[in-house]
Amino acid sequence: MSGRPPLPHPLPGAVGLSHLSAYDWESADGVCGGSPHLHLVCTEAYVVTAGRGAVQTLSPGGYREIPLRPGSLVWFTPGTVHRMVQGGDLRVTVLMQNGGLPEAGDSVFTFPPEVLAEPEAYAAAAALPPGTGPTTEAAARRRRDLAVEGYLPLREALVAGNDGPYREFQRTAARLVREKVPAWRERWRAGALAAAERTGEQLDALADADPAHLADATAYEAAPTLRGGYGMCGRRDEYAVPGATSPYREE
Question: For the chain, which has fewer Cβ within 10 Å, the N-terminal or C-terminal residue?
Answer without folding.
Answer: N
